């Protein structure tokens, strides 16, 4: 690859004041400080239909799902902050990942994911910070051929962890969140230079 690799950052939440959106932006800053360009994808701006097998018969592909798929194709790294819903990932994130695995034309199912590297984060109002949901997300991503960084970072008690500007109040947490972005940037720079 001759051009600089890029990272696509997104949260598994559509919520306007999502703590996971705040968290992924902090991690993205770590990547940007390491010289990698980051784009953001917000599921609030691009709501997708819940995938239903009938769509395949109708040759229908959700336009926002296609936008997401195209964004995935154009980036080499993924930064994902995933809220925990009932000990797992959110429906919004699972649905988006499902759409993106659906091939069109000559594509194979995992073409947009194969060879990508992902860094994972989570924040939730509970004491576990969403770590149980990350286990499921990690497993799904590995199955669709994404290389998931072993390091991850979770922030418990989300409602108290961020200030009004969406920044983590605790300096150590701030550094660790940025570190996920930095590590991801270092890996994709090594892989693609
Ligand atoms: C249906 C549902 C299930 C949830 N399950 C969990 C859970 O298992 N563990 C947890 O820590 N929080 C759980 N929560 C709380 C979410 O983590 C919380 O709403 C979180 O702030 C959402 O992320 P966001 O701030 O990025 O939108 C749940 C919320 C909903 C609506």
Brief summary:
With 193 residues, this protein is α/β, with parallel strands linked by helices. The chain has helices at 19-33, 54-57, 63-73, 91-100, 131-143, 158-161, 171-192; strands at 6-11, 37-41, 77-81, 117-123, 147-155.
Q: How large, in whole angstroms, is the Cα Rg? A: 16 Å
Strand content: 15-25%
As for the number of domains, it is 1
The low-pLDDT segments are: none
Strand order of the largest sheet: 2-1-3-4-5
> What is the chain-wise order of helices and strands?
EHEHHEHEHEHH
CATH architectural grouping: 3-Layer(aba) Sandwich
CATH topology: Rossmann fold
- How far is it from the N-terminal to the C-terminal residue, by CA? 6 Å
Portion of residues within helices: 40-55%
What coarse outline follows from CA principal-axis ratios?
globular
How would you characterize this protein structure?
By secondary structure, the protein is of the alpha/beta class. The chain has one domain (6-192): Rossmann fold. Helices cover 41% and strands 17% of the residues. It has helices spanning 19-33, 54-57, 63-73, 91-100, 131-143, 158-161, 171-192; strands at residues 6-11, 37-41, 77-81, 117-123, 147-155. Strands 2-1-3-4-5 form a five-stranded parallel sheet, with helices on both faces. The radius of gyration is 16 Å and the shape is globular. The mean pLDDT is 96. Bound molecules: flavin mononucleotide. Flavin mononucleotide is lined by residues 11, 13, 15, 18-20, 83-87, 124-126, 128, 130, 158.
